[in-house]
Amino acid sequence: MSQKVIAGITVDVNEEGYMTDPFQWTKEIAMEIAKGEDIELTDMHLAVCEFLRDKQEQDESITIRSVGNSGITDIKGFYKLFPGAPMKKAAKIAGIPKPASCV
Description:
This protein is mainly α. The protein has one domain. Helices cover 45% and strands 10% of the residues. The protein has a two-stranded antiparallel sheet. Helix 1 runs antiparallel to helix 5 and helix 2 packs across helix 5 (86-94). The radius of gyration is 13 Å and the shape is globular.
């Protein structure tokens, strides 16, 4: 495990750059990570991040389908919010470990 300064805050990250301590996460950190992914965060992005963080905290499975069934956005909308690799990007921005469903 290593550390990285994001938005002026030193956080613990793994070798892939995912935060290892979700309690270190802030919206400012999310905005900085999103910039690195060429994403400008909106309230919808943050709602998805909060949903993922809640699922992680409850130790529930995090999948694209669960996001699509969240009532926040559908699967197509999720791909638009986080283009390319939506679950990987959303998890990184949300400050949670990469879900097991991601390769």
